From TrEMBL:
Keyword Transmembrane applies: yes
Compartment(s) where it occurs, according to its Swiss-Prot or TrEMBL record: Endomembrane system; Membrane
EC number of this enzyme: 2.1.1.-
Source organism (scientific name): Gossypium raimondii
Identification of the protein by name: Methyltransferase
Gene Ontology MF terms: methyltransferase activity
Membrane topology: Single-pass membrane protein; Single-pass type II membrane protein
InterPro entries in UniProt: Put_SAM_MeTrfase (IPR004159), SAM-dependent_MTases_sf (IPR029063)
Length: 267
């Protein structure tokens, strides 16, 4: 629908909200995109189980009153297909949380009845969604059938050029957008770093091996550069995994789902 969405290159990490049995994530595997499917624990308790059995990353998580446990600008794309979330309630506090996690220049896809239906109550929902996304500076890049796609801005220029009375406001400067442990949601827009950190990631697969500029913002008690640590960790873990594969015959085990209990820098 949108040619600018370059799956597997600039769009590499996606979040699927209320993903059912992760059909969206399974489809994007063919496009070289890793999709994390999240859903609340349903009455059957089976959605996340089925997603993992399909080989798609999945976690139990829900938009509620606290931030989800992901840093700011974590996802290149966020998808919600009939996910049952009222994005405009409480001054748009839940959409503002999605905005916090969405990378600068990233895409938000909403597939729902209000996009296409003409009943009065659904038209009102679409009008409210359009008004909110405009106020948080998202650009509607495509609307077709029951699917709408918005793009988040690349920088703060739109936020700073809004009328001072427009709500929601920008978050305070002392609000750490990466502080997620037991942190309540806020009805404010998370500003983007002025240095471009987060939006200036390399395309895939260079992104996997090239130390991101955002690495400079991480607090470390280290005496060497963060880029050196990044490369050293990758080299070390490559050697470790090669030993695992050889010693434990991992190739014969056909492993698909792995949980890394100490992710470090992702090596």
């Amino acid at each position: 629908m949108v040619s600018e969405i370059s799956f597997g290159h600039h769009i590499r990490v996606a979040l699927d909200i209320g993903g059912g049995v992760a059909s969206f994530g399974a489809f994007l595997l063919q496009r070289n995109v890793t999709t994390l499917s999240i859903a609340p624990r349903d009455v059957h308790g089976s959605q996340i189980q089925f997603a993992l059995e399909r080989g798609v990353p999945a976690m139990v998580a829900v938009f509620a009153t606290r931030r989800l446990l992901y840093p700011s600008q974590a996802f290149d794309l966020i998808h919600c297909s009939n996910c049952g979330i009222n994005w405009t309630r409480d001054d748009g506090i839940l959409l503002l949380e999605a905005n916090r996690m969405l990378r600068a220049g990233g895409y938000f896809i909403w597939a729902a009845k209000p996009v296409d239906k003409h009943e009065d109550n659904l038209q009102e929902q679409w009008k409210e969604m359009g008004d909110l996304t405009t106020r948080i500076c998202w650009e509607l890049v495509k609307k077709e059938g029951y699917i709408a796609i918005w793009r988040k801005p690349l920088n703060n220029s739109c936020y700073l050029n809004r009328d001072a009375k427009v709500l929601p406001p920008l978050c305070d400067l002392d609000d750490n957008s990466d502080n997620v442990w037991y942190t309540n949601l806020r009805t404010c827009i998370t500003p983007l770093p002025g240095n471009g950190y987060g939006s200036n990631v390399s395309a895939w697969p260079e992104r996997l091996h090239y130390p991101p500029e955002r690495l400079q913002t991480i607090d470390m008690d280290a005496h060497i550069s963060r880029k050196e640590i990044f490369r050293a960790e990758s080299k070390y873990l490559n050697a470790i995994i090669e030993n695992y594969v050889r010693a434990y015959h991992w190739k014969d085990m056909k492993l698909r789902n792995v949980m890394d209990m100490r992710a470090g820098l992702g090596g």
